[in-house]
TrEMBL record:
It comes from the Bacteria. Coiled coil: none annotated. This is Peptidoglycan-binding protein. Keywords: Signal. Residues 170-180 have a biased composition (Pro residues). Residues 68-115 form the Peptidoglycan binding-like domain. Gene3D superfamilies: PGBD-like superfamily/PGBD. Residues 1-25 form the signal peptide. Residues 169-189 are annotated as: Disordered.
């Protein structure tokens, strides 16, 4: 009996002790969740919780997965991508429809829809149900169909405004009635004109002697990454999809496609991290990112004249002098990279990529290469300068496990290598000599 009472007491004590430990862990998590360094630092506890929620969501029950697949198939069919009957089974027809959707939106057309692509598709479907009958979307729906409406939603997400509906043309007024003819007397004969002496030539004035073509000094406006990628995405859709490995014919266009893909991944990652930043508005986050761009501005000016290792060393010195943890600064750089693209601030995006490369994530050298090649946020560099950053990024991705960033899948890396190293290069024909 004594033993039984002793066991019961031990069990009750254990039950009391467990909630206390859980409460203490929860208090520690809440305390860590309030940490913000520099206004944009994301605490790692919230990031881990976000990942856990994402993993849980990616593995729903069988019935929930079937229902989600039905919603995806229904949305694909609505926007003109034939996924077949919405039965909840993602077969070959559904995967083909997903690939068509991905290609037209500028995503990687692999037939496997990721959470970002799924949420955009389903959100656009719900939006179309409520807005496709109002201006200007009803005109887009009538002239371009549901797929044109989806492209419009994508452009708006990228910061490209939708043209407002044009006013209906005003009908021209009816012509006034012709007046009735009035009888008149015969006209008097016209007087014979007298010959007029030719006028003496006028002397050339000083203004005529000094005439010249206008010469104005125009300010140079920054190029828009949003407009650039919108044009690339339209051409990609017209070509039937993104350039595949081993099929690089136009190296410049293939690099631009990869740039816009990297940009899309950067914005998606920034959005997911921003959701874990407590007690800050979008305007406050953007203000902090503008400060980042100002701090890294001196390093941006040396991109065209310094080697990548020199720029990285200079930026690393700035990072170390800040006194902030490298991992948290890197999280802030990822936030600001996406913010720069969403707000069409090329210099902010470029500064964020330089910070990330200096923080040890050399795969972001791809972004720096694209910016230097096209002149986004910096002056256009010679091919050797931009290629040096690209080669550094590709070597990092292919030689270091887990170093891939911005969706640098094997296919993406293969296209970047083909377009940078010599795939698809032009050459004179070489035929065997005739005997």
């Amino acid at each position: 009996m004594l033993k039984r009472n002793l066991c019961s007491s031990l069990i009750m004590a254990a039950m009391v002790a467990v909630p206390v430990q859980k409460a203490q862990a929860g208090d520690a998590g809440a305390a860590l969740g309030g940490l913000i360094l520099g206004g944009i630092i994301v605490n790692e506890l919230n990031k881990n919780k976000q990942r856990q929620r994402t993993v849980y969501r990616a593995a729903p029950s069988y019935s929930a997965a079937r229902e989600e697949n039905r919603q995806i198939q229904t949305a694909l069919n609505y926007f003109g991508y034939n996924a077949g009957s919405p039965d909840g089974v993602m077969g070959s027809r559904s995967r083909s429809a997903v690939s068509q959707y991905q290609a037209q939106m500028g995503f990687t057309p692999d037939g496997r829809i990721d959470p970002y692509e799924r949420d955009f598709l389903l959100g656009s479907y719900q939006r179309a149900l409520s807005s496709s009958h109002v201006a200007p979307y009803n005109q887009i729906m009538a002239s371009q169909g549901p797929s044109g409406l989806l492209r419009t939603y994508r452009n708006e997400q990228l910061g490209i405004s939708t043209t407002a509906a044009q006013a209906a043309p005003v009908p021209a007024p009816a012509p006034a009635p012709m007046p009735a003819p009035v009888a008149t007397s015969a006209p008097a004969p016209a007087p014979v004109p007298q010959p007029v002496a030719p006028a003496a030539p006028q002397p050339v004035t000083a203004r005529q002697e000094n005439a010249s073509l206008p010469a104005f000094t125009f300010g140079q406006s920054d190029r828009s990454v949003n407009e650039h990628c919108n044009q690339i995405n339209v051409l990609t859709a017209a070509n039937g999809g993104i350039t595949a490995p081993g099929r690089v014919k136009d190296k410049e266009f293939a690099l631009n496609e990869q740039f816009c893909l990297a940009r899309t991944h950067a914005m998606a990652e920034s959005t997911s991290i921003t959701a874990t930043i407590p007690n800050m508005t979008d305007a406050q986050i953007e203000q902090q990112c503008e400060g980042l761009a100002q701090v890294i501005a001196p390093q941006l000016t040396s991109l065209s004249t310094s080697r990548p290792d020199q720029v990285i060393a200079d930026t690393s010195a700035v990072i170390q002098s800040s006194g902030q943890p490298i991992q948290q600064l890197a999280s802030g750089g990822k936030v600001c990279l996406g913010v720069g693209y969403r707000t069409d601030n090329a210099q902010m995006a470029l500064a964020s990529a330089v910070l990330l490369a200096a923080a040890g994530q050399l795969g972001y050298g791809e972004v720096i290469s694209h910016h230097m090649r096209e002149g986004f946020g910096t002056a256009k560099a010679d091919p050797a300068g931009s290629n040096a950053w690209m080669q550094m990024a590709l070597e990092s991705v292919t030689s270091t496990a887990g170093a891939a960033v911005m969706g640098q899948s094997p296919d993406r890396v293969a296209v970047l290598q083909d377009a940078t190293v010599g795939g698809g290069s032009a050459a004179l024909p070489a035929f065997p000599a005739k005997n």
